[in-house]
TrEMBL record:
Its EC number is 3.1.3.11. Binds 2 magnesium ions per subunit. It comes from Mesorhizobium prunaredense. It is found in: Cytoplasm. This is Fructose-1,6-bisphosphatase class 1. The gene is fbp. InterPro entries: FBPase_C_dom, FBPase_class-1, FBPase_N, FBPtase, Fructose_bisphosphatase_AS. Its main location: cytoplasm.
Length: 348
């Protein structure tokens, strides 16, 4: 029987007194308040213009939209009232030291799907909760260079038709929706289970000519549908908001790919390991899915730097495993010989 509210869920997670657990719960509570503020701002319909004059380039060189910076300020401020030692954000070159004695470190993408801000398509906030290891005041970035398996919890808010929180604290992936009538987040599902198989993929196909052969072949085979080696038709989606693509996969399965490609600066894809791929991989695995960098499990990758990128494939476990085989044992896929000699459907 699902707990009716986020509060009830968090209380049931608390269990016996435990400093880390209560820190996680207090932090999630602060995050929900911050997300509600961001949502209220979005609802005022002031996205592009309200924060004029705040545009600049972030740590990854992207042009920051004004709402990115606003959201970052809101979440940073909220974390000052949480048991958080360190706050690392996509929008900040270096982590901020908040309280060296506090037990947690948070890595956050305050506004995911920025290219959709002006288009009224779902955007979100992604967060990863880690133990604040090492000496936070001596080397703030070091706490974030731990593999995703160490996460104590992870989640994202999605500012869509509903304000939803997708959350895992290590036992399943749960979805809560803000009820404006009740003034609280209400559990919408007990725990998501992603189907093992799928007939739906998500990828930015405009990059087809830049992909490696393994990715092209996988997509070619999907597009051939019932006439190709897969023997079934596929559907395609690409929202260009990681949170929205992930939410759909949690609801009905599917596979998401943002591989590395040959464009300058995209050899490791576009997504960031510490505050995008790791929390998403944690949620997906907790829902029975899988997440890799095409070959290696995302959660086992040891980050080398806070803002590093990583190729990402996640979703229905059998499909993710198949994509790995396209990369590691291509001759075992289908019945083609010699492999990679075919011309792709997108190619002239
Ligand atoms: O525009 P592209 O290359 O298709 O990339 C879209 C991807 O980039 C992102 O917008 C990156 O996140 P940010 O908006 O936080 O930079 C993802 O949400 C999305 O999956
Ligand atoms: Mg993002
Ligand atoms: Mg962002």
């Amino acid at each position: 029987m699902p707990a009716a509210t986020l509060d009830a869920f968090l209380n049931s997670y608390l269990g016996p007194p435990d400093e880390l657990r209560s820190a996680v719960v207090a932090t999630v509570r602060q995050l929900t308040q911050a997300a509600t503020k961001v949502r209220n701002t979005i609802n005022q319909g002031v996205l592009g213009t309200a924060f004029a004059g705040t545009r600049s380039a972030n740590a990854d060189g992207d042009i920051q939209k004004d709402l990115d910076i606003f959201a970052d300020d809101i979440f940073l401020d909220a974390m000052r009232h949480a048991p958080v030692a360190l706050y690392a954000s996509e929008e900040l070159e270096q982590p901020v030291l908040l309280d060296s004695q506090a037990p947690l470190a948070i890595a956050i993408d305050p506004l995911d799907g920025s290219s959709n801000i002006d288009t009224n398509v779902s955007i979100g906030t992604i967060f990863s909760l880690l133990p604040a290891t090492g000496a936070p005041d001596a080397n703030p970035a070091a706490a974030f260079l731990q593999a995703g398996v160490n996460q104590l919890g992870a989640g994202f808010f999605i500012y869509g038709p509903q304000l939803a929180l997708v959350l895992s604290l290590g036992s399943g992936t749960h979805v809560f929706v803000l009820s404006t009538r009740l003034g609280t987040f209400v559990q919408a599902y007990e725990s998501r289970i992603i189907p093992q198989r799928t007939q739906e993929f998500a990828i930015n196909a405009a990059n087809y000519r830049h992909w490696d052969e393994a990715v092209r072949l996988y997509i070619d085979d999907c597009l051939e549908g019932t006439e190709g080696p897969r023997g079934k038709d596929f559907n395609m989606r690409w929202i260009a908001s990681l949170v929205a693509d992930c939410y759909r996969i949690l609801m009905r399965g599917g596979v998401f790919l943002y591989p590395g490609d040959k464009r300058k600066g995209y050899r490791q894809g576009r997504l960031r390991l510490v505050y995008e791929a790791n929390p998403i991989a944690y949620l997906i695995e907790q829902a029975g899915g899988a997440a890799t960098d095409t070959i290696t499990r995302i959660l086992e990758i040891e980050p080398e730097s806070l803002h590093q990128r990583v190729p990402v494939v996640f979703g229905s476990a059998r499909e993710v495993a198949r994509i790995t085989r396209y990369h590691t044992e291509p001759s075992a896929i289908g019945e083609r010989a010699p492999l990679f000699s075919r011309r792709g459907l997108f190619r002239a």
